[in-house]
Amino acid sequence: MILRVEHIGIAIKEMDSANKLFESLLGISNYKMEEVVSENVKTSFFKTGDTKIELLEATSDNSPISKFIEKKGQGIHHIAFETDNIVAEMQRLKDLGFELLSDQPKKGADNKLICFLHPKSTNGVLVELCQEIK
Ligand code: ZN
Q1: Is residue 30 within 8 Å of 46, Cβ to Cβ?
Q2: Which of 24, 6, 11, 21 is nearest to 89 (CA)?
Q3: Which of 11, 84, 96, 127 is most buried, judged by most C-beta within 10 A?
Q4: Which of 42, 46, 57 is nearest to 24 (CA)?
Q5: Greatest CA separation found in the chain?
Q6: What pTM value is reported for the model?
Q7: Per residue in 33-87, pLDDT tens?
Q8: Ligand 1 centroid vs 89 CA: distance in angstroms?
Q9: 7 alpha carbon to ligand 1 midpoint, in Å?
């Protein structure tokens, strides 16, 4: 079951200036920075009530974030929905014809199992499913 919007991912070119910008914008500091080596990204998280903002900076040229910025520029990259059972949710969406970008959940940032849906099956929106690792 989908529970809520867990976070919104934003692709940014340069972390220091983006962190400062979002600190001013939101009036709070980020609570965590984390590198996800397998995805070639560095992340920074801000808590905004029940939802988070995740800034994403590429750590190499073959990062999905560098490709995204090359094509579309900086901006909203994905919407992440929290689920209470990511494996069941992946199967449910697969059965409905959505295209998943991985067969198994992967380890993401912020202590989560994650899986992405291909934007061509979701009206152009990159959707992430996530579930907290307990
Ligand atoms: Zn995310």
Answers
A1: yes
A2: 6
A3: 11
A4: 46
A5: 43
A6: 0.94
A7: 999 998 899 999 999 999 999 999 999 999 999 999 999 999 999 999 999 999 9
A8: 17
A9: 6
